[in-house]
TrEMBL record, chain A:
The keyword Chaperone does not apply. Belongs to the binding-protein-dependent transport system permease family. FecCD subfamily. InterPro entries: ABC_BtuC-like, ABC_transptr_permease_BtuC. SUPFAM superfamilies: ABC transporter involved in vitamin B12 uptake, BtuC (SSF81345). This is Iron ABC transporter permease. The keyword Cell membrane applies. The chain crosses the membrane at residues 24-53, 73-95, 107-130, 136-153, 165-186, 206-228, 254-284, 296-318, 325-342.
UniProtKB/TrEMBL annotation, chain B:
Residues 2-236 form the ABC transporter domain. InterPro entries: AAA+_ATPase (IPR003593), ABC_transporter-like_ATP-bd (IPR003439), ABC_transporter-like_CS (IPR017871), P-loop_NTPase (IPR027417). The lineage of its organism: Bacteria, Pseudomonadati, Pseudomonadota, Alphaproteobacteria, Rhodobacterales. GO terms for molecular function: ATP binding. This is Heme ABC transporter ATP-binding protein. SMART domains: AAA (SM00382). Keywords: ATP-binding, Nucleotide-binding, Translocase, Transport. Part of the ABC transporter complex HmuTUV involved in hemin import. Responsible for energy coupling to the transport system. It comes from the Bacteria. It comes from Ruegeria haliotis.
Amino acid sequence: MPTAEQISPATVCDGDRSATTRRIVWLLGALLAASMIVALATGSAGTSLWQALSDVLQGRELSLRDRVVLLDIRAPRVLMGCLVGAALAVSGAVLQGLFRNPLADPGIVGVSAGASLGAVGAIVLGGALVVWTVPVSAFLGAWITTILLYRVATRRGRTSVATMLLAGIALTAFAMALTGILVYVADDTQLRDFTFWTMGSLAGSTWSKIYVAGPIIAIPLLLTPFLAKGLNGLTLGEAAAGHIGIRVQRLKACAVLIVAAATGAAVAVSGGIGFVGIVVPHLLRLASGPDHRYLLINSALLGAALLVMADLICRVIIAPAELPIGIVTAVIGAPFFLWILLRQRGIVDL
Amino acid sequence: MLNVRNLTVNLGRQTILENLTLTAQVGQITAVVGPSGAGKSTLLAALTGDLSFDGSVTLNGHDIARTSTTRLAEIRAVLPQATPMSFPFTVLEVVRMGRIHKTMNNRMASEALTRVGLHGFEGRFYQELSGGEQQRVQLARVLVQVWEPVAQGSSRWLFLDEPVSSLDIGHQLQVMRIIQDFAVRGGGVVMVMHDLNLTAMCADSVILLSNKMVMHQGSPRDTFRDDLLSSAYGCKIAVNRAPEDGMFLLPQVACAAS
């Protein structure tokens, strides 16, 4: 059995962590604001946010170059980083609550692969003509995968961790195979279009993508607080959650839809950015406990802040070239996942 | 009052319970006993609305198959046999999950913990506790959910699946006292029990299940008879009287199925 220190370093003498957790909400909000400002101010173009701000304040017109760099390149990219980071982290937290174990992550259990298949399918089969089809079909891919995963991994209200992870491998492999077939029949333009899916990048962020993906990500995220009490109850098990008045079937259906919409839209605009969904909620559980009323909002804030910062690193570390952000999150996230796996080994039967 | 008429439960092609008719009164402890595999836990799951069934189950006059989850949660609480939890909740956080209404007092959680003998455990992590301590934390959660045994003129119910199975004898008696207190104050209690001696001591009514059916329902004195028990459990059991009108059971060493 793990000791208290292993489970959480937070001080919990009276068992009530809500005050600490509320402080963490403000801290993370400040962290997100700071990271957004730094990301807006930094870049290889050498445009100064402060210079531009003082120009605007003194009534001077911004130069075309500054306007393009700040408003058309950096701003949508930072905003997209927030949306995608929040979507992936909250999807991870909701999936983990749904499966009642901390190893569920949209990337690991195949939900992202399903979304990629949907997005690539839309591009190759000609649906990309309409701007909405890519995120919507990514959502459908993610939705079908999540439902399949739940059906396979959960039996009589109990989820087997091993079955969930293995089913995730199978679903990922299957979705990748179908994606491979689509790539095979794609033409050159389409190939260029989805090369970035395999990498994961925020480099293609534009305002028009934000207008499309923004609502598909933001609406589910705004709905997640309504799931919080239900997800808390679900940790007692499906039957016991029902006994305290939670409508379990409705909760599960909503959770799956929310995960599919948020992950689908995130994958459609940024490709395979892995491990955000597992690292962020896990860190937050260590810091402030597993209460979903705070975990979900904190995951959104920390996920957004982390992805904005990771994207900043990608932009500046080998400037003027860029590193795909998926590489950065995987380099940090994969060892982190192994660490969680090692800690869990003693607690749950893998 | 709990009224069960012609209850049949099928899981897949298998019939687990067949044509059960029984009742449980408020103000009493009704114990369900019987050998392993007789369908005790299945019966409890059907009574709490977890399993679909044929027949009718009414609780305080509500047909449970037609009553909403939320309404059922207001009139009855259920204690499972064991409740493993995968995230590091503190004991206080677990007990507070029993607060199904915001109007419920936050102090109840600490009071319930004191009643189950876990005062001072509020900040401990649920996952670190022993099986018996976890069981008592869950009992505290369940008590918070149905804090008043009688609310707005209608009785509330506790459904307990082997509430003392992982407890030592001192805590077994403590838990039985809490359950008795709930019944005395007007609540209804239905509990699955393994320990026949403890059942004989505490229950007001006993339902003896055997081979998918109710073999007998009545007071412990009526139900715990050598012939009934021996036939239900498939081994020789002698019921003995203790001083002061008590009763104890001794399984006979020479066990024989027939």
